[in-house]
Specification:
The protein is about 5% helix and about 35% strand. The chain is mainly β. A ten-stranded antiparallel sheet has the order 1-17-21-14-11-16-9-8-29-6. The protein has a six-stranded antiparallel sheet with strand order 7-26-25-28-23-22.
Length: about 425
């Protein structure tokens, strides 16, 4: 599979040589009688450095489809906020064939789709390929596979994404999700705010964290399928279906800086301390969606990969803390260094704004007894969706949460010794 390399660049790609107009974006007659269509990810008047758009040259324009009708039973679940710490086991696979979209299980959200803020966290457990096509007008999809690969056939080309890789499908881009294996499980964070981008490096300097060259963008590929097909749109929190007589993945050539991309989390250049104390988890930020408040993210995507811990005279696991940000954590493989048992691959946890959290009793007492020898954390890949707005939990998620999660801290006994 061919990919273009990098992120933030202006790319161009053509599946048929000569399909891409060379002198202007929308000539009176496009090569091979294709249709020119612009896809804008920002307002037309956004500053040049922030402006996102791509030109697509397709066999038929996107307007050639039927009327959208609401999909029965596809509205979002009722949600409510809670300060209680929550944790979940992996979402079980369905008994029968269920595709990626219909398997989405809403965990939590902190948004109203009318406003371009916040995000929605779901899990997926797909056991069948999609036959319909899909796009979201509400936000971009950050897809984090945990088990099984996904083939994301988009209108700009294909992305094959495996566990320990991620993919981002920008708002409005049409796709179909196929399964190279028979089933796949993972997480989806739909970002309703500013598009995800690389964080600033500040005092770190010019290099480190996720490097632009490690992001991959699909090369143009088109599909000429015709027949009685369906396109599903997510719009204002609801799912809508419309008939379409051709595949919307019919872009023969494209150019621009608004496109889907993938990234291998194992290529993350981890920054850490070589003296003392436990740095804040912001040093593990892969992608960020900024809010209107400088330095406060609408959404941060943070990972905890294999790494060395060498801080001396230091409690090395994450410290106990209460945070103005709200945190959903997931585990892709292995174990997370702040949890002994109960937090397993495919599971998740939620600690809302100012809800205290930190290592369980087992981890805490093991850490305070440890020595200063360097320690290598192997066989692990955890992540966090962190947002400045508290999450509301779906009724289904609240009912399926582990009943005894808070017990993991019961072993932390007061042992204050007066001088």
């Amino acid at each position: 599979m061919n990919y273009l390399v990098g992120i933030g660049n202006h790319f161009e790609s053509e599946a048929v040589p000569g399909a891409l107009p060379k002198e202007q974006n929308s000539p009176r007659k496009v090569p091979f009688d294709l249709f020119a269509e612009q896809l804008s990810g920002t307002a037309f008047t956004a500053p040049r450095s922030e402006n996102l758009r791509s030109w697509l040259y397709r066999i038929q324009p996107s307007v050639t489809q039927g009327t959208f009708r609401p999909l029965d039973g596809a509205t979002a679940n009722e949600t409510r906020a809670t300060p209680t710490q929550l944790r979940w086991d992996p979402t079980p696979y369905p008994n029968g064939p269920v595709d990626f979209l219909r398997s989405l299980n809403l965990i939590a959200e902190n948004t109203d789709s009318s406003f371009r803020k916040g995000c929605t966290v779901s899990t997926y457990t797909a056991t069948a390929p999609m036959e319909s096509y899909f796009y979201s007008a509400d936000g971009e999809f950050l897809i984090v596979p945990q088990e099984g690969a996904l083939l994301l056939a988009t209108e700009m080309g294909d992305l094959e994404v495996h566990p320990e890789e991620i993919a981002v499908i920008p708002r409005g881009i049409r796709l179909q999700v196929q399964l190279p294996a028979k089933k796949a499980r993972g997480y989806v964070c739909e970002n309703h705010g500013a598009p995800l981008r690389l964080p600033g490096l500040g005092p770190i300097g010019a290099n480190g964290l996720a490097n632009p060259r490690d992001f991959l963008v699909p090369s143009a590929k088109f599909e000429e399928k015709r027949g009685s097909l369906e396109i599903i749109a997510k719009f204002q929190g609801r799912y809508w279906s419309a008939p379409i007589d051709h595949s919307p993945l019919n872009v023969v050539a494209w150019h621009g800086n608004y496109y889907p991309f993938k990234y291998d989390l194992r290529k993350f250049n981890t920054i850490n301390t070589v003296t003392y104390d436990h740095p804040d988890p912001s040093i593990f930020t892969v992608l960020t969606s900024p809010s209107e408040v400088i330095g406060t993210a609408n959404l941060d995507f943070v990972i905890f990969p294999p790494r060395w811990m060498v801080a001396e005279h230091t409690f090395r696991p994450p410290y106990y803390h209460r945070n103005v940000m709200s945190e959903f954590m997931g585990l892709i493989r292995g174990a997370y260094d702040a949890k002994g048992t109960g937090f397993v691959p495919g599971g998740g946890s939620l600690h809302n704004c100012m809800s205290p959290h930190g290592p369980d009793a087992e981890t805490y007492y093991a850490a305070v007894k440890s020595d200063d020898n360097p320690q290598r954390y192997e066989n692990t890949m955890a992540f966090m969706f962190e947002s400045c707005t508290p999450f509301r939990v779906s009724r289904n998620a609240e009912e399926s949460a582990q009943k005894n999660y808070l017990d993991c801290w019961k072993g932390l006994k007061a042992d204050f010794k007066r001088p």
